[in-house]
Amino acid sequence: MDFTLLSLHLFSLFLLHQPLYAAAAAASTHKTTATTRFRSELISHPTPSTGLSPTTYFEVTKPIKLPRTKPCSYLLLHHDFAYTYGKPPVLSNYTPPSDCPSQNFSKIVLQWRATSKGRQFDRIFGVWLGGVELLRSCTAEPRATGIVWTVEKDVTRYYSLLMTNQTLAVYLGNLVDKTYTGVYHVNLSIHFYPYAEGNFNSRDPNWNNHDSLANSYRSGADLILPISRNLPLNDGLWFEIENSTDVGSKNFTIPQNAFRAVLEVYVSFHENDEFWYTNFPNEYIVANNLTGTPGNGPFREVVVSLDGIVVGAVWPFTVIYTGGINPLLWRPITGIGSFDLPSYDIEVTQFLGTMLDGKTHEFAFSVTNALNVWYIDANLHVWLDKKSVKTEGRLLTHASVPPVVYLVSKFTGLNGSFLTSANRSISSIGWVKSSHGKVTTNSTQALTYSNLMVIGNDGNLQIVNQFIGFNDSVFATVPSSSIHSIQSFKRFPLYLYSNSVDQGNETYSLVTNLTLGFNEEKKSSGYGLLVSSLKNLQNAQGTILVKGNLVVSGLGSTQQEYRYDGSKFCYFRNVSSSNYTILYDKLDNTCSKKSRPHVGFRLVQRWPYDEVCNTGSKKSRPHVGFRLVQRWPYDEVCNTGSKKSRPHVGFRLVQRWPFPARRAFI
Q: How far apart are CA 216 and CA 482, in angstroms?
């Protein structure tokens, strides 16, 4: 084969350093060597900065709905993160606001603002308060003329924690030398927005917010316990999961008057598993005698256990960091979730009966099929009964069967196709008796997964089409009625195409196409009915031309449509960019669907079959050229069997963006 699978696998392979390109690389964790699969060290000639203003990077998301009150704002930390790899987190003493005219707050917002200039990898970082993680994020990759970006996160759910003295810890492992010159200059602030005059505060300690049981489910927890590593450390407070048998765990105790508990889990993946959804099955690696190629297939699952019993699972969204896949795609629009990685809530109220004995218990985390390295920790949110010294509970039923994973493979040499599918469910029912009465909680997780991977052109072409369905529901009832319910239906589609072509004279081109989606529908009741829908879809295309280890030309373009519809708030944004330039940006915050344009993606994929196999006539094959279509199973890839005999399984994506024209920039 003309190129090794090192260059085959996807194209996030260079450190670029001029106005067209910024420094690319490992999303890095904080290691000195880049991920061997997707990243090599291709460098373009630096261009001196000539007084151009810094580029503003951003992640498309809905704005935080703020009250019309003046916030009390405080700078928590100012720090320049230079050579910080392998050193302790930056620490600061945190005290709650004491000089704010009001001590009752409707909204609390954490704000990260950073600048950088030069060449640098992207870096994962975390912010903890008293060991409780408030933010998991990735830095943007700088350019010679400088960059700036801001992340704002609603941290009101941590209200009780923010009202106490704590230690603030920030870890961002960075490396600075003569080549990688980017220093991250960071300001971390917090903004407290008081309630408007006359509005009651359900979190005011002088107002018994648990007189109404339904209201307690919408209020923040009374206590938040860190399920993370303890300081001092020379790293982040997250647990490091390095293989499929590794386990990170933490002992804890909870007050004996707890009546509800929710575990919030943070997850990020790096190094050999940064692109786990593209990892080859081990049988393919062995058959082709490949070395240095991450394997264990493309399925991953974060397993959460309480005292050795599986209480929940996370099938994570495929966050692509700012140097991932092709770094030119993420300038200035970054990947979904890259600046504010999602956390995942697991209801554990059903298990309180086993935790209310005053003894020490253990939460543990592992990752199915894991390679080095995953960063995982959690926050345990606990609601307390102010009128009781002790509550009691019992687990009634619990069912958790390990995921059923299927692999169907068909390959000859370096060419072939693989379909990996899995599903599982976890359900439990338990009751807790408190001053609110006897409340029974029923929680269910239902998860589905499919990944179709096609490898062609003697290993230089890879196509991945993946879908994750992540549904969970919680119902809390008393004997007479339902007091709380929440249902969440998440859908994570991903389509990835990469093709490496030899252009002669030690030069090759790399073409990449990507579709990434985060869709969620939520319905909750108990204090009125709340319904919301989020459809967040990115489409990106990139090409680069490489001679030796020098990127001589390239193009990266991204289009994104973000649509949020809530019961009281709506937000729509359609934006596109190409190589640092915003081409189109449409905003709308009205809730009338008629007034909003229906622009963007109606995803569809037609595989470029001609590049995958050489069977069948061209007339019998679907049109190639990125109006892409996916249909399970693989025999459609090689045109074997009749269409009538093939099941139509999985999701039907469509993408209306054509292949980008290949342009050269010197």
A: 14
Please identify which residue in the block is written with the tokens 């009250």: 67
Q: What is the pLDDT of residue 552?
A: 79
Distances in whole angstroms, Cα of residue 662 to Cα of each of 505, 542, 658: 19, 9, 12
Taken in order 319, 321, 325, 331, is the CA torsion positive or negative?
positive
Determine the Cα–Cα distance for residues 20 and 143; give it in Å rounded to an integer.
Answer: 9
β-strands 301-306, 415-434: how paired?
A: unpaired
| Token reading at 655 | 């993408």
| pLDDT (tens digit per residue) in 80-103 | 999 999 999 999 999 999 999 888
Burial group, residue 487, by CB count within 10 angstroms (0-12, 13-18, 19+): middle
Q: Which amino acid is at 447?
A: L
User: CA 32, 33, 38, 43: dihedral to nearest 10 degrees?
Assistant: 80
Interacting residues of 619 by C-beta distance below 8 A, sequence separation 6+? none
CA 521 to chain centre: 17
pTM for the structure as a whole: 0.84
What 3-state class would DSSP assign to 493?
Answer: strand
Interstrand relation of 147-154 and 55-57 (parallel, antiparallel or unpaired): parallel
Burial 6-45 (b: 16+ CB within 10 A, else e): ebbbbbbbbbbbbbbbbbbbbbbbbbeebbbbbbbebbbe
pLDDT in tens, 173-232: 999 999 899 999 999 999 999 998 766 554 444 333 444 677 788 889 999 999 999 999
Q: CA-CA distance, 170 to 184, in Å (whole number)?
A: 13
* Inter-residue contact 281 to 254 (CB < 8 Å): no
